[in-house]
Design goal:
The structure holds two protein chains of two kinds. By secondary structure, chain A is mainly beta. Chain A is built from no helices and eleven strands. In chain A, strands 2, 4, 5, 9, 10 and 11 form a six-stranded mixed beta sheet that branches. A five-stranded antiparallel beta sheet of chain A has the order 1-3-8-7-6, with no helix packed on it. By secondary structure, chain B is mainly beta. In chain B, strands 2, 4, 5, 6, 9, 10 and 11 form a seven-stranded mixed beta sheet that branches. In chain B, strands 1-3-8-7 form a four-stranded antiparallel beta sheet, with no helix packed on it. Classes of the chains: A mainly beta, B mainly beta. Chains A and B meet through strand 5 and strand 10 of A and strand 5 and strand 10 of B.
Chain lengths: 110, 114
């Protein structure tokens, strides 16, 4: 079992809909979680991070963390075709560096 | 600099050749990380520096891989006797004070071993 797990997708949503991306982690000691967006052929770009249980909102993005269920999610409201990318979930899984999931590919259909 | 700079952007190496990949982090960033990203996968941790000290090299896949950051700024990842399975994008990231701040990634070096 990987330390950070994501469904590879693709997740396909129509333009204007809410995209829900999910991630689970195995290390209960993990404290902080990060969502990165990666366009094809480009490097990952930090979107949001979350430390505390509950929701954190930033514009069209909401990160959710449930430490009891070891579950992290990213909601993208009013999805746009430009949101089409791979979304990487990462956590501090007990080592000095972040551990990344394999990523979920999101396709927003115009 | 304004961002994390990596060079070369692309590298084609013949199997058995040695390669050196360079990373110039954001000025003042204490922490520097190297990751390997295979096609369709997330970045996999290779090694971590805090200033010039290599604090974790547990992700280096073999003793053919070596990284250094002698003056606490620019870092070089060296791969000796490259093999086809080394083909990947090598990403460098820097952080102001460790993983809790998130990373800024460089553009990466795409290594192709033929």
């Amino acid at each position: 079992q990987k330390e950070v797990e994501q469904n590879s997708g693709p997740l396909s949503v129509p333009e204007g809909a809410i995209a829900s991306l999910n991630c689970t982690y195995s290390d209960r000691g993990s404290q902080s979680f990060f969502w990165y967006r990666q366009y094809s052929g480009k490097s990952p770009e930090l979107i949001m991070f979350i430390y505390s249980n509950g929701d954190k909102e930033d514009g069209r993005f909401t990160a959710q963390l449930n430490k009891a269920s070891q579950y992290v999610s990213l909601l993208i409201r009013d999805s746009q075709p430009s949101d089409s990318a791979t979304y990487l979930c990462a956590g501090d899984t007990g080592r000095r560096a972040l551990t990344f999931g394999s990523g979920t590919r999101l396709q927003v259909q115009p | 600099g304004a961002g994390v700079s990596q060079s070369p952007r692309y590298k084609v190496a013949k199997r058995g050749q040695d390669v050196a990949l360079r990373c110039d982090p954001i000025s003042g960033h204490v922490s520097l990380f190297w990751y390997q990203q295979a096609l369709g996968q997330g970045p996999e941790f290779l090694t971590y520096f805090q200033n010039e000290a290599q604090l974790d090299k547990s992700g280096l896949p073999s003793d053919r891989f070596f990284a250094e950051r002698p003056e606490g700024s620019v870092s070089t990842l060296k791969i000796q006797r490259t093999q086809q399975e080394d083909s990947a994008v090598y990403l460098c990231a820097s952080s102001l004070g460790g993983q809790f701040y998130g990373y800024t990634f460089g553009s990466g070096t795409r290594l192709t071993v033929v």
